[in-house]
Amino acid sequence: MRLNKYIAQSGIASRRKADELTLQGKVKINGIVMKEPGYDVADGDIVEVNGKIIKPISRKVYIMLNKPKGFITSAEDERNRPTVMELVSDIDERIYPIGRLDFNTSGMLLMTNDGDLAYKLAHPKNQIYKTYRARVSGQISAEKLYKLRNGVDIGGYITSKAIVDVVKQSKRSAIVEIKIYEGKNRQVRKMFAAVGNKVLDLERIAIGELYLGHLKQGHYRKLTQKEIQYLKEC
Ligand code: URA
Question: How far, in Å, from the CA of 149 to the mean position of ligand 1?
């Protein structure tokens, strides 16, 4: 971590002030004055400011991001595609996504540096329901709706019950809201494929009782205390 960020995260100064302190010779690394604000603090380095040893406080951060299509949900991509990390690059803490969305899916992605919560929510036993809005090709008949609601074969796995409603049916496509309680890879796309409809657009609009609301694509906001509490308790 860069020295100025390290100092800022210890809570004693802003990054700018940290740079000033460094240039003034008030910062030591392992007992030796360090005047380079860009110094990369290594594990085990002892950082002193004005003669006092400091340590960064690891603040827990909880973010709701509205992921646009065309971003990959991981820290890096071997094909050099844009990643969701680029959309939260102004957050100092090292946060990571809870779960994932396909490259071509938009909508709610939660990110945090709270390993306990991320671990808990990722566990199949604690799967929290997720709501998607899909635009699909063709018509959704009553029979298809029944199948989607009661379980379809998505390649060796029969999906559990889901809440599915047709919001709008046009001649060539339909808008469908679907709430699922499990999170198999590309599940929604596979469920529609199983009944013969192609997903044209897919957006995750809610995770449990957390709603995307008016959060714009590419933007993020911090979760409220109430929302954090909700996730911890569900
Ligand atoms: N289901 C999908 O098919 N894709 C997603 O990104 C999320 C759920």
Answer: 17
